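Notes from the 1:1 (GR / supervisor)

We went over the backlog. Supervisor wanted to see one worked example end to end before approving the batch request, so GR pasted a single chain during the call. The sequence is below; no edits were made to it. Supervisor asked that the structure be written out right there so they could see what the output format looks like.
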Amino acid sequence: MKKFWNDLPHGFTILAPMEGVTDVVFRRVVAKAGRPDVFFTEFTNVSSFASEKGRHDALERLDIVRDENGENLETPIVAQIWGKNPDHFAETAKHLEELGFDGLDINMGCPDRHVNKAGGGAAMINTPELAIECIERAKASTNLPVSVKTRLGYTFRDEYLEWISLLLNQHLAALTVHLRTRKEMSKVPAHYDLIPEIVALRDEISPETKLIINGDIKDLAAAKELSEKYPGVDGFMIGRGVFANPYCFTDRHPSQEELKNLFLYHLDLFDQRARELESRGSRYPYEPIKHFIKVYFSGFDGAAELRNKLMECKSSDELRAILK
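Structure output shown during the call:
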């Protein structure tokens, strides 16, 4: 069941799910700078969603940007989930369509040691039977197209032959392959040399599955170049490239004034989100916004000094005062 996946242009682009980054606020920032063809959320723990205690926090992660009429402004948007409990995958999958999502993606590639220790993310590569059960339970519990994001393997890159084949045999709507192993993290270049073999596996086992490549893709130009070189790949996911240029899904190279104005827009959204969550009995912490400062202010004379001043601020109003 592919639904929106079939309507995307060849060589489509996706904003990668990044923990602590691609929340509802930063997705709006990227959309203003230049939309990808598909949005992914941060990942949400299915065990949190399935529990009475954790449901509130999980639903915050699964918020979607809507207009005054309640229409989804991020469509198509895919909810990414992780965990290791098949029952919890089924419970979470059952509710994602009513929350307004267009697809469901299972994270089987996150290298974070805490996630892996809990049996999720890339750790699922080492528990293939459980991984397949989680996929099956999710697919059986929703009308949404189900996809998976993973890595070549846990320790060795040649693991991809068995692991990727196993996933393709589940006839997923889409499969995203980060072209590194869990052990490699991001310390080595992505293994682009394996793309033809992975395309061949997809064509042989599950030709209906959209194949997406992730790793070292910095911007739209890089995605176009890869698409020409590897026409068997359907789409390209950009993650860290957005830190180098939030306009990475376009061919534009913004001026410093444009970047400053985009940061001010980011701050406005931050304040709006903080007020919204406060009204719901929660809070939107200030500190994480500091992670974004280098995104907007770098590569010009005095950038380091400006960043140091901004990093000392303790509120969005203080940030605005310095930028004036």
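Supervisor's comment: The chain has two domains: 3-244, 256-323.
Batch request approved.
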